[in-house]
């Protein structure tokens, strides 16, 4: 069995919408899974974001739940895309994904300059001094991700 990864922000959004639609349709996971020709555990993984819901599955769910939601299809298309930070060797850790999808970032730190305002040298020094300091390559990748001024999503 493949190692589980943390669901990305878009997968979590998709998962919440899929679950909400099922609940609004008044179906149990067991009943919906049977109607969708999948196991209950497979549907559960899709509703928690552990597994991505494909566009085909999203269409089937909308048919079953008697809902038309083009936004759900768009979300299903983008949920499985790798994040731009992967090019830097950074795994899906959560903070980059959340910052990328955020329209507002509020940060309160007593001792450090917020990540989005850090200079390259400050970020490098901070990352080297931290408890979770990794290899030089990992630190440089983390700095590059933090400093990248205009990431593109998807």
UniProtKB/TrEMBL annotation:
GO terms for molecular function: DNA binding. InterPro entries: Cro/C1-type_HTH, DUF5753, Lambda_DNA-bd_dom_sf. Gene3D superfamilies: lambda repressor-like DNA-binding domains (1.10.260.40). SUPFAM superfamilies: lambda repressor-like DNA-binding domains. Residues 18-73 form the HTH cro/C1-type domain. This is Transcriptional regulator with XRE-family HTH domain. It comes from Haloactinomyces albus.
């Amino acid at each position: 069995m493949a190692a589980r990864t943390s669901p990305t922000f878009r997968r979590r959004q998709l998962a919440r919408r899929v679950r909400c639609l099922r609940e609004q349709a008044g179906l149990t996971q067991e009943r919906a899974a049977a109607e969708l020709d999948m196991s209950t555990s497979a549907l559960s993984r899709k509703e928690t974001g552990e597994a991505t819901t494909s566009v085909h599955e999203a269409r089937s769910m909308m048919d079953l739940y008697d809902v038309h939601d083009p936004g759900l299809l768009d979300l299903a298309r983008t949920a499985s895309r790798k994040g731009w930070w992967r090019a830097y060797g950074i795994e899906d850790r959560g903070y980059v994904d959340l910052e990328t999808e955020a329209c507002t970032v509020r940060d309160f730190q007593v001792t450090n300059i917020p990540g989005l305002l850090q200079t390259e040298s400050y970020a490098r020094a901070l990352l080297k001094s931290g408890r979770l300091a990794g290899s030089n390559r990992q630190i440089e990748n983390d700095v590059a991700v933090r400093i990248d001024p205009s990431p593109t999503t998807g």
